[in-house]
Structures
1.
Amino acid sequence: MSRPIYLIGARGCGKTTVGEALARALGYTFCDTDHHLQRSTQRSVAQIVAEEGWDGFRARETESLRAVTAPATVIATGGGMVLAEPNRRFMREHGQVIWLSAPSHILAQRLESQPEAAQRPTLTGRPIAEEMDDILRERAHLYRDAAHHEINAMQTPDCVVDQIMQSLSLARAS
Ligand code: ADP
Ligand code: MG
């Protein structure tokens, strides 16, 4: 059976965009752990954190990761999924893990150019570029640790998809 493909990386690296295109190219199902979490709890991330704290949110995130894991599935993970070691190990053991890597200023630019509705306020009220810088400094080694392959996310989504397929020796479904 085809093992699942997990996409990891900070917000804005293209997990949703690339994940949907990759799933189409391979004839796989696409899943997003954040969407699964919100659907299964009928609450937003902010609501879960307010009611259960970050620990509660992280525990539910781990449940979502396990729930969406299935053969022939491309799984876009929440940006903080790699923070917990059991999540990193679970992904590596159950599938192929791809890190979509891009520098913080590119991630910030992409997030700032999203439509208002898709933008989330920064956690600290500081400029988003500064926040992304801190996040990458804190997490880059975790993404690197968890990933089987690091892919340059500063190419067009089609090129990113091609590179992932090459690195996994997978061919297009049609
Ligand atoms: P994530 O799911 O990792 O947070 P998204 O797929 O939602 O990232 O992408 C964030 C923003 O960046 C979107 O506006 C998307 O259109 C844009 N984007 C994603 N991948 C690329 C890319 N390879 N090149 C240029 N823009 C991209
Ligand atoms: Mg996304």
Note: Strands lie at 5-8, 29-32, 73-76, 96-101, 149-152.
2.
Amino acid sequence: MIIKPKIRGFICITAHPEGCAAHVQEQIDHVLSGGPIKDGPKNVLVIGSSTGYGLAARIAAAFGSRASTLGVFFERGSSNGKPASAGWYNSVAFERKAKEAGLYARSVNGDAFSDAVKHRVVDIIQKEMGKIDLVVYSLASPRRTDPKTGETYRSVLKPIGAPYTANNLDTDRKVVAPITIEPATEEEVAATVKVMGGEDWELWMSALEQAGVLADGCTSVAFDYIGPEITWPVYTNGSIGAAKKHLRATGARIDASLKVNRGRAFVSVNKAVVTQASSAIPVVPLYISILFKVMKEKGLHEDCIQQLDRLFRKQMYNDGFLEFDDSGRVRMDELGMLPDIQAEVAAIWPQVASANLEELTDFAGYQSNFLKLFGFGLAGVDYEAETNPEQDFGYDVEVQA
Ligand code: NAD
């Protein structure tokens, strides 16, 4: 079939297999261009490995330090002739390329919040991998079913305490207009913490620890975001910010427990990039469009792979050492948060309207990044050619919760 983008609001419901493979290859090429990551990880588990920051972490580990990788994700395979999700195609492509390079790669598709997926992962590690020396926790999900109670929680992206009004960019209709978001209820905040806080990260680490599959000196990392003050009411000080606070507190506990065997856990604050998760956050796509313009003009633009490659190369491995801010976080967003960059973003922000969107921001860059997430707009891919939507891993990746 011929696959074209079909955008519905802030998602694209189609994805292109060869395009996704080209996008994965671009990221592999970036890592390879930096040369080997010395003393890098060898046996890596990435939870949320199919898109965004998790995929970039998997690529950096595999192609930077020839690590064996086990990836966990929740993606849709192709059925009834319909394309699979982008994360499915990314993961098939990643595995093919890893295997061509002689690297072990294995995937599990299912609900990472469930006990069933954790058990399957432990089983695979015990049978095929030995011990894990890096666990990357990179889930972004709108809901979570607590495995103990069976209750399902939904996260919200809302301010806390008072309504928040700001200019919002409707990326599909290309309209900039103010929106007001009503504050989250206490119950909604608690549910968001349940979904995006640290509880599941800790359950993963305990399951791995109890199964005896964590190597001495094991590292674990999860990702956080801060962003500019203008978006704090809906992010840092909002319901998702409450979840990130919980994630950081959990990270400190995991760190203390890994330290017993000379390991460590930490949270890395990453910069805003276009991913399926970030496109759903109100107001943030407008910030990203302005930030891209300012950072590109200064030659400082970074996407997921540049951030993760730098995290591995400059901080975690390669004779690097972790540098923490006053709150104990690693800051990979430091370039985007430079005062001169933030001052320019703040100066542009109030001037942006639908009519001058293209001129004052890098909305074109935002859109092309967004399409790339689904495998569209990649150089060298013939989008008029027939393609087979059915791509598989060659073994059963599914785990039912
Ligand atoms: P993403 O949407 O690109 O990736 C989410 C991943 O989670 C995918 O692999 C998806 O399959 C997986 N997933 C979701 N629900 C799952 C489930 N129930 N079971 C198994 N897998 C599941 O998201 P992202 O933007 O890369 O976000 C990853 C982390 O990085 C999040 O903690 C996010 O807050 C953080 N972060 C993102 C940004 C940004 O701008 N995108 C910035 C800083 C930090």
Note: The chain has a mean pLDDT of 97.
